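Technical note accompanying the year-one report. For the benefit of new consortium partners, we illustrate the data format agreed upon in the data management plan: each record pairs a sequence with a structure-token string. No post-processing was applied to the example shown here.
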Amino acid sequence: MRKGLLVGELLSAIETMRSPVTEDGQLAELHRALLNLHLLLRSERLYDKNHPRRLAALEKAFDSLQGATQRGKFEVYVRRDGLAVSPSGSTYLQDARGEMQSLAGVLTQAGIKQISFKNNLGLAELNIFVELIKVSLISPAITAGQTRGSRDAWWATQLAEHAVKGILVNSQVDRKVDTLLTSLIAALVAYGGNSARTNAEELIRLPDHDDLAATLTLLARITLPLENSRALSPEDGARAIHAAMEEARHDTVRLLLSAVSQYDPEEGELPQPYIVRLSENLILEYMIAEFAAGSITPLTVRPTIDGFGALLVAAGKYATSHSSDNHSSLAQIWSSEESRERFATRFWLALAPREKSLVLRGPELWAVPVVALRHTLGNLAKAGADAPRREARHILLNYARRLEHDDWRARRLVAAGLLELCPIIESLWPNQFPEDLSRGALQALEAENNPQAGALLASFLEWLSRIALTRADYAGFEAILLALENTPRGGNHAHLSGLMKRMVAPERWTLLIDAALANRPLDPVLPRLLVRDPDKLLDRMTLLLGETRGTDMLAAMSRLLRTMGQPVLSVLETRLYEARPQRVTAAIKLLASADPDRLLRGLTRTLSSWEWNMQDLAVSELSRPANASAAQTAAYIFSSVLASAHPLVVPMMIDQIGLAGERTAIPQLMEIAAGEHPILREQFVRIKAIEGLGRLRAIEAIELLHSLAERRAGIAFAEPSGLRAAAQDALARIEERPASPSVRATFDAPTPTTALYAAPRRYMRVPLDAPLRAQVGAPSGGAQASLARVKTISLGGAYLEGPQKFAVGDSLTLEVRSGLRKIHCTAIVRNTAPGGGGVEFVHMKDDDRDKLRKLVLRNLPNS
């Protein structure tokens, strides 16, 4: 045997070792047909006969089976571990998800061992066949306890009664195969039996390469009569076997006889699977011995397998040169890349532990099939003890270092192997991956100039980054991202751009954002990562604020925004000017919490373009105690935009101007109080302006207030009673008269706030001895009104209890009943609690205001 192959020759032989194997077109078609049959059987159990889904599954299965039978009849053999197809049931269908094995189990329960589908198959026949399977499954007495012959007879009878001619069940009972297999063994004994010169040691000696090659050639040549048992009579088959024996050397026949004696046929085993098994065992026994002796190295394992495979294929062609087929089945199997790869895996798994360990620790580890490597590492990982797991980690890191190999094909194999080993890598390092793993992969990716190897490495790094996110290893994720940003672009590194996009995909960014908003200390890496894409961050925050839990997360959002600083806050400020209400609302809440000065700056430009509910939100958020440091600035801004605000928002703005002591607003308040403002002329707004002058102790407004309180038009007062009462209270405040109950109710509200009432109290709240009834409805009147109870009340608002669920910012119409009196007003929900919520009165008529004042004064303590 030729030894010492160059690495380049080896790579040429195994460069497709771990690349996806393209399935033969006919096998793929058969697999698809049987998969649709499996789905049809499931539909048969789940749905009625005429159910649309069941009918759709029937048509789909029929179309695929009809396509598979265009080349003629095909046979399906039911095995314990799956399904096999012609010839002789030697070709197993791929079963990555277990569908074929599941279908095999169903067919076995139905007493089916073999099915033949003909090209004259009809839709009605397939329908009948499926129904018969269902009958056999739900009526075990049909098949249970019966012999094989009786079950076959039952199927034959049923198919005949229903005139099913396109499907045959358990119809192949061909004993010629057994006869020919017996002829083979007899011929081997006759031609290779021990002579007088032959002793036992010569018979069992291990063959060298030439002996094995001759034996495999003989095995391939005598395969023809076994594989064409239907076409040949037993006599013709025996003559063909004897002819092949006569052309072979006596030692070759004896060696084959020895192999047959050692690996004898199993009970019921068909000739073709037996011949394949025999050839594999011969090659495996030889290669294990040669590997132990050092004649075969890890780099020459696959070329050796390919050499024996080529020999069998060539011999198979010779044996069938005068037949109708181009290749024997043995040649077909050994010509398959998938079959050779499977045999290579079997070889590595069959090695002795010592020899296997030397390879796994050496530099030629990359030549081991990844299936065998995964099996070995999986066993070590499942051992549970520390030593086997350390051994598995050492092997994996050694395997990853092969990414530095000089040949790109070796690097490609290792990159593909690392991808397949991802689950084991994750189990071996449950907390944090070693730095060598990610750093080595990054360095290899940066230096890689082969597109295929680079794409595989990029996929592996993408997986590493995903696991880092899942484990909250944000530093590891950032390291990968930074390394990718520093790698060159264009040319052979074009795949890096795609990897970068996948790493910062929306679902990844969502994980980062949610981690940053979690109720725990903020990881310093997260702001550095999220600042790369402020728009994604703000979009996520906008979405969360629209949910029920959004309010609870506002503090965490504010913390994150302040930590990130200028870049994201500037983007957030620009959202105040957008046309999408949801974005504007979120920007108001976030800026009011994180940077109220930016929100105030935006008010001067965009307040007039907002809907009233957005104006109300901005003013109420800026009026919270958390923004007390910006109260003076807010009052100044409110006074400058007062005329642009909605009438329902103006009352709160005026209250804040008065509470903050913004004296520059006095002239404007006097104009509103006098009813001379070109826009703000409603009585409720005028009352609020009068109260604002009182809070500011505006001496310059004394004359105006006296006029409002005392001026008459004939014998009647010129102003309504509610406005006159407000002017009297403001005068008492400015002139520092003894505090009357009405003055105390208006100006002497306690300053402390509670968790329930987040905004400062502008009026004294009065608890009611007996709760008042209130009717609550929407301003539009579309929603059905509900009843609530008023437990506390003031000139500025009330607290309601009732079955209705309130939401902060909701606008309500209230009708509060006190005896025979009814007070009508418009209110805004400012806070909520289980079973109720606090509301602020933002509009009411003058007579309703007067009724409210009298109600409050009547219930004041010590009034």
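Partners are asked to follow this layout when depositing records. The longest helix spans residues 271-293.
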